[in-house]
Amino acid sequence: MYHRPSLSPNPRRWAYPTTSNNLGRNRKADKNIHLNRCSISPECISKFNELKLNKKIKYIIYKLTDDFKEIVVEETSEDGDWDAFREKLVNAQSKNKAGKVGKGPRYAVYDFNYDLASGEGSRSKITFIAWSPDDAGIQPKMVYASSKDALKRSLNGIAVEFQANDEDDIEYQSVLGKVSKGLA
Question: Where do the segments described as Disordered lie (predicted)?
């Protein structure tokens, strides 16, 4: 609920919500929230540009470092084998701050090629996948979710983006349907 504007000497008084956590009232605390975002390694952007322009790399898998401070390239491949790519996502592991290892989220970019069912030729779409398995740890999932947009904004040229939470979401036919919008 917002305060109504009043004739008080503080014209900004009405702009802040009246919530129990007082977001917006403590500028220093708000600034610290934004400082917790992770950085993006320059290699992430250069490998993406190689995939986009040179068409040699078929996919890139990105991960957060163990301290959750930077997004880095985990792996690139010139082999477009979907099943090998899928297995790498399914078997990805992450540590939480306590050091416990478990299933882990990842970001991936895949240069997806498909033929149109109408016979009008083939298409290629650069696809961004945010892989966050349901049985991954809560902390890695939260950090990956909060840093996804920063990575996406730095990668210019993504045609399709989707969130995958279980193995069925990254089956070839499922992804083909999303990427081609049912035209393949």
Answer: 1-28
Asked if residue 53 belongs to a domain, the reply is yes
Residue type, 136: A
Query: Per residue of the chain (184 residues), what is the pLDDT tens digit?
Result: 555 555 545 545 444 444 444 445 544 433 433 445 789 999 999 999 999 999 899 999 999 998 889 999 999 999 999 999 999 999 999 887 777 888 999 999 999 999 988 888 999 999 999 999 998 888 899 999 999 999 999 999 999 999 999 999 999 999 999 999 988 8
Domain coverage including residue 161: 39-180
Cβ pair 60, 72 in contact under 8 A: no
C-alpha 182, offset from chain centre: 24
Residue 1 belongs to some domain of the structure: no
Specify the CATH number for the domain of residue 73.
Answer: 3.40.20.10
Residue 50 in any domain: the answer is: yes
Helices (H), the chain: 27-35, 42-54, 82-90, 138-154, 172-180
Angle between helices 42-54 and 138-154 (to 10 degrees): 60
Helix-then-strand count for the chain, H and E: 5, 8
